[in-house]
């Protein structure tokens, strides 16, 4: 009986071990399946939303193409029409935003150009973008894009009034013979004038055309800031003269801005962390107005650095664009320093800054060296100097 009892006890213990192993395997499977099932659900819903967004964009394009040519335009746009620029649609619990842009397009093979006088409105370019917010903890947004050209049957009709054509291109290029690079989706605004305000966005050809304007003087502003770019400072605003039956055209250059990071050091390479007075930074710019900033002790950080945003974004000049900056510093007497020089510092050491950048979107680390003004001699020093001069 004792032997049989031992055998039963061993069998019961073995069964318990099997149960624990089975539970562990099951838990591992469940824990692995939960994120997998979530990922599958995310992918499935995102695919459905992406398909729906594409269908909405295509449907909008077809609906616009079915309209008469003169009715193809957005509310408040140029060309004008009754199509809302922004619409929202909710399907299966998902809200989709439908944005519509309609622009005049000049045939690149035609007579019109940024300096030409041909009719600038050969076609209408229709672009529809449908977006929906991301799913599951603000995931990537769903986006669908569709576009088409709409042409008039027969010859183009001359519109009353005059026209403005803004052509936007990249500024930086190392090959002077290379063709201009157009920039799409740059905001161009008529902020003043008889038919203002109006807003357009450049097409893939880099153009924005305002047609059928009343004659007069217009203020045209180019705003590429939503793309992280800046206009050349002296080209940001243009005063256009529009005459009946003519086109005023202008070329604008935009680029990713360069930046300066500044640090103050003395001639012993020690950071300057305090100023008794103030000093003026003067940056002479090759395009646009010079920049002046007053620096006080409040601007200085513990390592002698100045705030990154002390100077504004700068138009990049260098091997791909002509020009040169010049930075000078004028401390007042209360600071106890005199300006020495400005150098650029990198991993290879430092050298005098030549006022240029390596390219668009680059940053230069500059060190401004200041020389301490020697303290005037005290009474003892003056007496010693007097005795030395008299030979006593």
From TrEMBL:
SUPFAM superfamilies, per the entry: Cna protein B-type domain (SSF49478)
Keywords: Membrane, Transmembrane, Transmembrane helix
Database matches in InterPro entries: N_methyl_site
PROSITE patterns listed in its UniProt record: PROKAR_NTER_METHYL
Pfam families according to UniProt: N_methyl
Membrane-spanning parts: 20-41
Protein's name according to its UniProt entry: Prepilin-type N-terminal cleavage/methylation domain-containing protein
Species this protein is from: Desulforamulus putei DSM 12395
